[in-house]
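Cross-posting from the modeling subforum.

Setting up a comparison between two proteins and wanted a second pair of eyes on the formatting. Protein 1 (sequence, then structure tokens):
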Amino acid sequence: MKKAVFLGLYVSSLNLFWAQTQNLNELKINEIQVIGSHNSYKKAILPEVYSYLSKKDSLNFLPRIQYEHIPIPQQLDLGLRNLEIDVYADSKGGKYAHPKILDLVKTTQPFDPEGKMKKPGYKMIHITDIDYQTQYYTLEDCLKDLKKWSDAHPDHDPVFITLEPKDGKANQFGTEPEHYTSKLFDDLDNELKRYLGKNKIITPDDIRGNYSTLNEAVVNKNWPKVKDVKGKFLFVLDNNSENRDLYMKDHPSLKGRMIFTNSAPGTPESAVLFMNDPGPKIADLVKQGYIIRTRADADTMEARKEDYSRFEKAKESGAQVITTDYYQPSKLFKSNYKISFDNNTYERKNPVNGK
């Protein structure tokens, strides 16, 4: 009898899983809602570095970056379908090979023992010289891991990846990031194609189709169904100023580009938007056809207070991508805060436009 009951429960669960999968498969990718990680590659600051910096942290900034992530393939195994990557250009190599804080603090863990930071290529760091602990020293290694995971799970639902090109002024140690150029952005596109594969990327050209602009395609709901983009990734440039404009230059409606941009609604390149505050404006944009990325938490504040109000707003807004640092509770401070949909899932039908 017990065996029969167990078999019945198993079949029921299997049928439920199949029904849910079929349900999402028939939806367009702007009609689902996924949870993913923020600065997905980041490891925790080493304790000895954190201790040193905290003594000089008069503005109490350090607790805001006191978070960490498990390896990206494990995040994907959990069911997360959004990742965030920061990328520094390093065309000559070695620019970030020696974090300056290591001149002040003796650490137990060696940095970059294989010397990967000395070679030319795009590097993955959160904050140069200070918050440098990373799952991947190079974008190349990250993309290779994504391809390996994707090839092992060919039927995975699409993964949204926000990619932030980091540059700017020199920091307090005098390290000034290499500034992006049109060539560096061309090289970045080629990096994605080379190590992940164009066949695994949902591009702006794919969405624009026969429409005159990308935006026209988006407001006409020309996004593909989930079942038609299994095993693929969609990249979005996390920048809304000079670097975004530089990336778009000579590429009207992002023709030929690999990455979508955070462009104002109604402009020819507009398709995916960043709205960190999950406010009421999001639902209207979702109904118009845009894909929106928002945040469930930021700067560790919600996790420390175990405050889910921002996450609830994010869910209700219909934003298709919700990022968090806490798909698992923190191990760096005491908190039970953990983000997921019902039954520990990270993907569901969109509450605003899911049919």
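Protein 2 (same layout):
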Amino acid sequence: MKKFIFILVTLFVVVSCKKETAKKEIVESNKCAVSKKFDMYKSSEMAILMEQMYVENSKLKERILKGATLGTFPSYYTKIFSAKFTDESDNDTFFNDNANLYIAAQKLLYSSSKNYKENFNAGVTACITCHEGKCGGPIPKIKKLYIQ
């Protein structure tokens, strides 16, 4: 009986040690993965600005639909002419022409007391036109801004 208990305890210790070794190997392999340099994607100034303008336009659409006052033209929109792009080659005549159309539509919207829907939709169209020529990715999202 003593031999049986001794063998059982020994077997238990050996199995436990093997599991502990396997755990250490997993931890060691995880340490290796964690210690590697991890490069995070960083949005460009232009991408951040466009995201802010999208949020502002979503709020603006709701104000127009409710018949509320629009407030004043957000001056930070003009950073569209100076914000840094992810790819600086995108900052060309085509972009600047469309940016001017967008800013003009926004200024007209905020300065007029009528035709809110048409002026707002003109700004959305300027965004879509530019994105059709540059990066089409956000077009479905932008189209949701249209006021029907």
